[in-house]
Amino acid sequence: MPQINGNTELFGIIGNPVRHSLSPAMHNAAFASLGMNRVYVPMPVNDVAQAMSGLRGLGFRGASVTVPHKEAVIPFLDELDPVADRIGAVNTLLLRHDREGRTIVQGFNTDWIGANAALAAAHIELHGKRVVVAGAGGAAKAVGFGLIEAGAELVITNRTAESGQELARWLACEFIELDDLAWLTADVFINTTSVGMEPDTDGIIIPPGLLGKFSAVMDIVYAPLETRLLREAKTAGCRTVDGLAMLLHQGAEQFRIWTGMAAPVQVMRAALEEALRRKAACAVCGKVVR
Ligand code: ATR
Is 70 a catalytic site residue? Predict the structure, then answer.
């Protein structure tokens, strides 16, 4: 814990719910490891307009934005990063002062960078590779956007065809039904749905028998850290990337935006794993996480 005093700079996460967010552990560990007098707090928010005034009025320097406010914050920004504008969602705020002392709030999206960086850190090549993304929500949109930026040939699949097709149109890529995955050849499979998340840890979005045809499989679910999808993928001989990797790398990019410095990713990953272990232990013993 830093010594909180009159020079402490404020950061946090707005969303609802945020009580179980792992981001405070990750960012506070990063700030502390570099001796920065900064704190990052979870802030449950219902009213985005009030929260944005609050961040400005209280002198916050930066914030993460999570579900369900990633789109709703946009009208309250002074500047919107062009990529966040294209994706239509903001997960990072940077607050600074202009020459007249006015607070300027800038919005960015680091989710799309998170998936790419997580795959790059695992030495998984994307350029020219065919990548299947399961899901059609906000996570699929950001991940899909990043994959196309990285030069991948993207295929979207989703339980509900209409929303899958709509996302595929937006990304200008192919859509296939989940049932047709058996006929597809591809290099990488990425799950962006909540299938496999606690408490339904037996869930798997793709028949395990199909996993052997991919060289790499990534899951954005991180509770449990080894989902059934990743376990079956390992058994099938695939390289795997877990859900903490995307959380870590989108957070590392946030850290860079807030500080102008490269993030201490090993410290951040260790903090995420520790926070996840504490959560799991508390879930077993029934105590509230402190
Ligand atoms: P986010 O914005 O976090 O990505 P979301 O918008 O709720 O979350 O999207 C959830 C995704 O998970 C959707 O693609 C959803 O599929 P549908 O469009 O058919 O609803 C997918 N999903 C959730 N539960 C699922 C399940 N049990 N089986 C298959 N897909 C599921």
Answer: yes
How many other C-beta atoms are found inside a 10 Å radius of the C-beta of residue 102?
10
Ligand 1: distance of its center to the CA of 146 in Å?
Answer: 19
* pLDDT beyond 90 at 290: no
- Taking the whole predicted model, whether its pTM rises above 0.85 is answered as yes
**Pairing, β 9-15 against β 38-44:** parallel
- Give residue-wise pLDDT tens across range 62-116: 999 999 999 999 999 999 999 999 999 999 999 999 999 899 999 999 999 999 9
Q: Which of 281, 255, 259, 257 is nearest to 267 (CA)?
A: 255
Supply the pLDDT for residue 3. Answer: 84
Q: How far is the CA of 137 from the centre of ligand 1 (A)?
A: 6
- What would the two tokens of residue 14 be? 């707005």
CB 29 within 8 A of CB 271: yes
Q: Which protein residues are within 6 Å of ligand 1, measured from CB?
A: 135-140, 158-160, 163, 192-195, 205
Q: Which of 70, 213, 234, 279 is catalytic?
A: 70
Bridge partner residues of 9 (DSSP): 38
